[in-house]
Design brief:
With 256 residues, this protein is mainly α. The protein is built from eight helices and two strands; from the N terminus they run αααααβαβαα. The protein has a two-stranded antiparallel sheet. The protein starts with 13 loop residues before the first helix and ends with a helix.
Length: 256
């Protein structure tokens, strides 16, 4: 492990100094002096606690990975073994979505190992802060990829559900597919290239080296827009089966 000072202490080496400069630069304080370190609340108390929740965090993440693998694998196996159904694009896309979810959880486990997750912030070092920020931003890109594949899988499932019932439903699914694909491309490109140089949000060291010249687009407008679209797509996609069910000619008790 790299020798690194604790958060709040002066930097122990050049790497710590660049990490501190990167933290200041990403906060908009490009000319701040890194020689005195950087303090993040809460401050280190006189008698600090060294307890850690890392083990329980990892246990929870492993459980989540197991649930994703078992449910997705069970679904695909069940469809593959049934003679009355066949695997489709919705199955392929949900497998990709599940792979993205497992990757997301795995990166958080890496944040526990190298990024100080589960520890008090005053017990973490600048190097751990670097890895926390690095893995965390990669997780953001993985998140957009994962939810996009999952939404596209739901579109294909709804498409399969309505079948060839009407040309109107076909166009509804096509429009959803195109819109979510555009959302996917826009989200990944924005997250990957919102700064100049592009590596800045992925590395506090790169941010520290380019503290005086780096430029990043604000996350406020684009982040809010992507979050709103994320929620809106969920509501619209989940409403399709409800609309189909409401239009079925059967007793209300059977629908419920």
């Amino acid at each position: 492990m790299v020798d690194s000072a604790l958060i709040g202490d002066p930097p122990a080496n050049r790497r710590d100094e660049l990490i501190i400069k990167g933290l200041y630069a990403m906060a908009g304080k490009r000319t701040a002096d890194p020689s005195k370190g950087i303090t993040m609340p809460p401050k280190r108390p006189a008698n600090p606690s060294y307890d850690s929740k890392s083990a329980s965090v990892v246990a929870g993440l492993v459980a989540a990975i197991s649930v994703v693998v078992l449910i997705t694998g069970g679904r695909v196996c069940a469809r593959w073994l049934q003679n009355t159904s066949r695997l489709g694009w919705d199955d392929a896309l949900i497998v990709l979505g599940a792979a993205g979810a497992v990757t997301w959880f795995s990166l958080v486990i890496a944040m526990v190992g190298r990024g100080g997750v589960g520890k008090h912030i005053y017990n973490t070092t600048y190097d751990e802060t670097y890895w926390f920020a690095r893995y965390g931003y990669i997780d953001l890109v993985v998140f957009y990829i994962t939810v996009s594949f999952t939404k596209l899988s739901i579109v294909c499932f709804n498409w399969r559900l309505t079948g060839e019932s009407s040309i109107r439903w076909k166009w509804v699914h096509r429009v959803f597919f195109v819109l979510i694909t555009c959302y996917f491309i826009a989200a990944v490109l924005w997250a990957s290239f919102r700064c100049n140089p592009p590596a800045v949000p992925f590395s506090l060291i790169v941010a520290g080296k380019n503290a005086e010249t780096l430029h990043c687009f604000s996350t406020d407008i684009m982040g809010t827009t992507l979050s709103a679209l994320h929620i809106a797509f969920d509501w619209m996609l989940l409403s399709v089966p409800i609309i189909i069910l409401c239009r079925l000619k059967m007793a209300r008790a059977r629908k419920l």
